[in-house]
Every structure is written in C-alpha cells, then in structure tokens.
Amino acid sequence: MVEIKNLTKYYGHKAAVKNISFTIEDNEILGFLGPNGAGKSTTLNIISGVIPSTSGTVVINGFDIAQDPIKAKRCIGFLPEIPPVYPDMKVKEYLNFAAGLKGVPSVKRKVQVQRAMERLRITDVSNRLIRNLSKGYRQRVGFAQALINDPPILILDEPTVGLDPTQLIEVRNLILDLKRDHSIILSSHILSEISAVCDRVVVINKGEVQAIDTINNLEESSQANIVLKLKIQGNSRDVTKTASQVEGVIRVSNVTFIKTGIYTYNVEIASKDVRNSLLSALLMKKLEVLEITEEKKSLEQVFVNLINNSGNKKSSLEKLLEEMNSEDSTENNSEKNTNSDSKPDDKNKADKEEEQ
Amino acid sequence: MFALYKKELQSYFLSPAAYVVLAFFTLTFSLTMIMGISGASANLYEFSFSSIFYSNLFYLIFTLPLLTMRSFSEERKNGTEVMLLSSPVSVTKIVLAKFLATSTIFLIMMLVVMFHPIVTAINGKIILSRLICTFIGFYLCGLVYIALGILISSFTESILLSIVLSEALILLLILVDNLSNFSLFSSAPILSDLFDWLSNQKKFYTFSRGLFRVSDLIGYITEIFVFVIWTIISVEKRRWSRR
Q1: Nearest to A34 by CA among A209, A210, A212, A204
Q2: pLDDT tens digit string along B212-227?
Q3: CA-based nearest distance A108→chain B, Å
Q4: Residue B104 lies inside a defined structural domain of this protein
Q5: Is residue B157 one of the residues assigned to a domain?
Q6: Any idea of the CA torsion for A53, A56, A58, A63, to the nearest 10 degrees?
Q7: Residue A314's pLDDT is what?
Q8: Residue B41 domain-assigned?
Q9: Predicted ipTM?
C-alpha cells in the first residue's frame, strides 16, 4: 500500500505538483491520468524516490521514502518514461545487473531473470545488445527490470509507449496478471489504456488532482442527458416534428443526410424511459427506424469536462485535442507508413519520366 | 553496491575506452623507458624508474579523463540515472562503486606496465623500496585525478565537456605546484606552505625517492576524499533540482 499525503513540489517558484493526496490499495491498479506537463512524471519520480518532494510524505508499505529510503525502495519497481537501459549491454547481462542492484540474492538471480524474461517475452533477444533492439523491445526490457525483484508495488510511467498493437495487448494482459499480487500505479495520457486496465483513476491537471474515482462513477457522474443516435427512413421534417413532440425529448439536432430518404439524428433525452415512447411515436407515424445507438460519454469526454470545469483556459483544451489527434495518428501510423513509402517511389518515377 | 561495481568494470571493457587508455598508457610508458635507456651511453649512468613514472604523471592528464568521462554523464544521457536512484542503493554507494571501478582499471594499467621493472629485475638490479614507493605515490596521484574526473562528470551531461573540463582542471592542479615557487607567494610563507601542501608533484617526489611520509599519504587521501564527497553532494543536489 502506498499513501501519498499533501505532496508538493516546487521547481524554483513554479509549483509542479500542488498538495496531492491519494492512496494505492493492495492489489489495485490505479490510473494516473493527465495531459502533458500535468505533473504525472514528477509525482511518480517522487513516489519512487528519484527526486525529493518539497513537502508532504510518501509512505510505501509503512516506510517513508524520505526517512527510510532503502527499505522503501526495496518495495518498488519503477519503469521511468525513458526505459533505463544501457545500450552497450546484452539483455541478460543487463537484467542480471538489475537483479544485483536491487539486492536479489545471487542464488535466486538466474531464476528471477529467466522468469522476468519469460513474462515480458524477451527470451529470444536475451543475447542481443540492447543498442540493436527496437523501441518496443527496449520498453519491455525496461519493464522486466522493474519487476526483476518481484516488488509488491509497481510504478509504471507510460508503459505502453512504442509498443505495437499485439505487444500492447500482451502488456495489458501482463499488467492485469500482475494485479493478483502487486499494487500498480500506471500513468498514461492514452485514455483507452487507462480504461482497459485500471480500477480507479486519479485525474491530474496542472499539478492538482481533479478527481479520484472509479471509471464507472466518473462516467456516470458527468452524464447528464442521454444522447440517442437514430438512423431513420422517412421525411426529415416529419421525424424532427414527431420526435420533438414526445415528452422528455430535449432536443433533436445534427440531422445528417445519408441517402435519399434516410437521415441520422441526434436526439437528446432526459432519461432512459423516454426511449420507448420516442420509438413508439416514430413507429406510429410509419417511420422506419433503421438503427439506434446510445452515445455513451466516454472517458475522453469525462476527461475533457474535468479539465475544462477546473476553470482552465482554452490552451489546455487545445493541447488535449492535439493529444487526441496524435493518438489517432499513432493508430493510423501503419497506414501512413505505407503511404509515405509509396510516395517517394511515385516521385522518383515522375522524375525519371521527366528526364526521359 | 558490488553489482554496480561489477557492471562499471564490465562496461569499461564493453567500449573501446579502456583498451585505448590501456594501450596509450603502455605506449607512453614504454617510450619514456626506451628514451631513458637510449641515453645510457657512459659507464656511469643513473637510470631510475621514478623518473619514468614522473614523466608519465603528465600523460595521465590525457588518459584518465577518458576513463572518467562517462561515469555520470552517460548515466544521465541514457536515463539510467533514474534506475540507480530508484534502486535500494544510497548515492554514497553509487559514487563509491564508480570510483572503485575506475581505480581498479587504473590499477590494471599500472600492473601491465610493471612488466618493465620485472624484466629489469631479472636481468639486473633494482632498488625495490624505491620502486614500491614510486608505485604507491603514482597510484595515489592517479586516484586524485580520477576522483576529480568523476566529480566533473557529475556536473555535466556532455561527455566532451566532461573530458575537456577534467583535463583543464587536472592541468590546473599540476600548475598549482609551481605557484609556491613564485616570488609573489614565497614572500608570504603561509600561502607558500599552503600551495606546497597542495602540490601533488612534491608529494610524488618524496614517494619517488623511496620515502614513505604519512603526511603525504594523508594529503593525497584528503584530496581524494574531498572530491568523492563533493561528487556525492553534487549528485544529491541534482536530485533536488532535476525535473
């Protein structure tokens, strides 16, 4: 268990982290969420004892990180943002060193190294130089280093950066598997990552905690009205008129043309009970409902709301949107790569043709 | 701590640095030795290993920074410093492990060049007490430079800057020796004594004559301690100000 109380960190006069308090229970995965520069890494670095705090305490399994650093550090495995690997070493050598550094007795060292390599699936690269490994493999070697001495608490700073989708799922499963006998604190700005594995979420922005809750509670609490997305065959004016007349419907908006006679509508309703009366009203008018989906507020919206509500200026929202775009772009990377590969070829061809 | 020491030692041989330094040191030592022997034309020729060690003291300016340049600079550059600081090892132990590992490399360097005195001893006569004292003096002087080099490396992230700064400061440390002879300082006996006490060359000189003076030993050890403790403070200080 990790208890963080009133943690504050100043860099000069600038506060990076202000009065943060939360606890990480045993066998729990805590998500640590916030835009870039929110103070995530600073907080994690303080928890793992890399940097001291200006004020406040971090107690790890009963040991204060400032008073009793050696004992406290024995309980944690830390994976920093940049995997802390020595490029000149081989994977196995490196993990052996990490085990020694973390005080694994030499008798157990071989077994522990083997186990960590199997868990992260890096056994096949065990005799390769870390310098020659790809980003994803380096990340996993760094992860293996964090759990080499089987610490009860794992602190993972963006563990899935640079992993391909299959590795991502593997690491996600590994984290869920580790949950059985570890408490894990996981930071990320990728929201789907957090919602996939975490039990509770701490949302942080500009060094301050915005919310601490379970994902479900966060989603429900900020969900005022339900938005239904309907795809209906029929005259759009009829549909709008009929829908607006139903009691409980707040607004019909975003009418989009799909093809002749078929439109999609966003209908905002006050509660779930309105849905049936809305549907029956539409069917009475012989309008054919082709599709109905409920627009659930995702964690992303919750996140945006939380950060907007805290009275922040536009700039942070813009940053956030940029981040979301960059997330999309990472997902589309594979496509882009193929495109960019083909483009130069085309250019070359064009050049050659011109020469001819 | 032993794991870190072992890794440091290993890393010297994973990169060409240790080999280059070892080769360069052997080369300069052998060359000075050859030059020393080639001067032996007359029947009455005094030839001593002390003078060879003495000239090699200056070559250390260029070789030892090559050993110490990476110790903290590279840790910081690779982001591995975070791993060391988050592991259950105190900063003191981290600094000591690095210092001891570099000292071991330097010891290996010196053991390799011991080849010359051994061959000389087989074919001729050697004053053992003088050789041993020179060896100790030379080693201690090298340790001072190593401690200084590691300190400089803890200041900066750039390896190049670390080399240049260490070389400049070691040179400065050697130049301090001559300061005590300046008429300006010799007129003030306290300053003169101070520089005299700081002088590494003078300490080495006593050692090289086969004299083992405790004051010189303490002088060297104090310098080493100051630099090592300063390194510990420097690393701790960076912990407080790092982002």
Answers
A1: A204
A2: 888 889 989 999 999 9
A3: 14
A4: yes
A5: yes
A6: 110
A7: 40
A8: no
A9: 0.85
